[in-house]
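Subject: mismatched residue count in predicted assembly?

I count 693 residues in my input, but I want to confirm that the predicted structure covers every chain. Input:
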Amino acid sequence: MSAPAQTTAIVETEHLSRHFGSLVAVRDVSLSVQRGEIFGVLGPNGAGKSTTIRMLCGILDPTGGRGTVVGYDIARDAEKIKQRIGYMTQRFSLYEDLSVIENLRFYAGIYGVAWKKRKARVDAVLSSSGLEQRKDQLAGTLSGGWKQRVALACATIHEPPLLFLDEPTAGVDPVSRRDFWEQIHAIASQGTTVLLTTHYMDEAERCHRLSFIFRGTLLDVGTPDEIVARRHLQVAELEVERATDAAALLRTRPEVEEVAHYGHTLRVAVRGGADPERIVREVLEGGGVAVDSLRRSRVTVEDAFVAMVRAEAEAA
Amino acid sequence: MTGILRTLVIAWKELLQLRRDRLTMAMMFMLPIVQLTLFGYAINTDVRHIPTVVYDQDGSAASRDLAHSLEATGFYDLVGHVSDYDEIQRSLRSSKARVALIIPPNYASDLVRGRTAHVQLVVDGSDPQVVASATNTAASMVTARSSTLLVTKLQRAGAGGVAMPIELEPNTWYNPDLRTAVFIVPGLVGVILTMTMVMLTAMALARERERGTLEQLIVSPVRKLGLVIGKIVPYVAIGYVQMSLILLVGWLIFDVPIRGSIGLLYGLASLFIAANLAIGLFFSTLARTQQQAMQMSFFFLLPNILLSGFMFPFEAMPRPAQILALGLPLTHFLRVVRGIVLKGSVFADLAPQLVAMAAILVALVLFASARFTKKLV
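Triage response: the counts match. Full output below for your records.
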């Protein structure tokens, strides 16, 4: 029996890979997650995010590489890992024909929450997720946002040191998503590590650290700021009359990484530290398009992500 | 210890869900009763009251007497007289009659003169079961009559002390009145248990897979065995309730006696129920949806009904079918349940069935648990 290793990393993988037949779902992923942080795994659908999480939870064997979670090897000690993690998927796997409190009691029992502690734990998660009023309602009759709360409450009923959330906010309205993120930060502030996958860029910025997965490969890991800085992008926003023509003109310049429409506004990202405002003026004045307004803008994780995916797709 | 607690938690959850699922609950308890009534009343393999026409070419007192004694057996209902072969054909074709008795012109005089009278019986062979019953009954009736005539004749001729050389006294045990219900009801215990146990287990696990809750359980510290046992224990209880219900209703309505030990029956039923649950578990590993699980269960039910000896005698089946049937738990359980209920069989009588069911169970459990892993792929 191996004792948990005393490091600050709660999740550590080296060259973790998973093949399904000839398909490589995850290739050579090496990353480490520190205790207490909110770690986001970002990537488009089918990039290998869920496969990675499933391997870390011990429900899918890796076909290559190794990993440790809460100090245990994911291939050898999967059952030990399972006692120390919480897991929630986008499907909010609740028993729809059981009430909220019955779901909570069930998971408390499954995770072996001591009988004496059970009532206190159930009450605690009910109040922290604001579910007291709905505790006797059947889970199937709740809206998406409320189901998500119940699912999170179930996943944390046994106070796991590590929480895996696989696309926890898919299909949930914006207000519920916001509330959910507040809850995630509250949970993390009590020392729980949260590892989650998402393809919402605004959510990525709420993580302490991020990793980008694309076609099964890890492209970058770091804080949102670090990841953005490494792309060397500059962004300007402008308002023009003929936005579509302006966009077409801008795309002809090699420095321009990306032009995107946001209502009447165009967002222009340029590579290699070039000055986006100067380039916009040059191009549009030359093309005879009048610029109504022009200003610098913050570079977002989304800008960085799009640039990374594009570079990778061109390289392939 | 925590493992047992987890198993209980799962069983408790399963019961809670069952309680909410009124339709399934109703099906589980109504199904045995409806089936029992249907099978018990509708299925009747003893053919009686076969519609019969008579073509009496003789028209004598003796020929009328023959036709009447045929009707007196209770197997034939005289529905009319015909006057030629065409009419016989029409009667059979229109299903007005299934049997025609043809008495030749010189029937009475042949009898008097000691010549053999050739009486013909035409039978509609489209239903083989009717053929067998009709010909057998008529043949034995005619043989009995001939013997009596011979003996009378010999006595008249002065041969004193002539008696029937051989007389067969058939003596049917366990079901002397040959009531089909007595045969069907115990068999129905096995058929209904097969149907509900396989289907409920397969669907219960397929539902968790479909809803994604199985993944949630697989990520939890619940052990594979604990998960499976917790899921099926409630259904074992339901199986026993169904079995009791069928035997009780069978006794009340169809007067089916229970001659042997109920304890022995319930004990041996545990092996049978477990084997069916293992099959259901195996199906659940193949099925992605509840619908598929349901289809597989029905697919499995058909050979059980046809091959197990529930409806057709095992001995009458060709060898390959028999070999297949021996692999079905129901084949062995039918012998157990009929043995105990109808014949009062004791443990020693049923040892071969016990061994067979145990062997099937072990094989199924090994097979099912090899397929049911706590990994996703």
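The mean pLDDT of chain B is 88. Marking this ticket as 'not a bug'.
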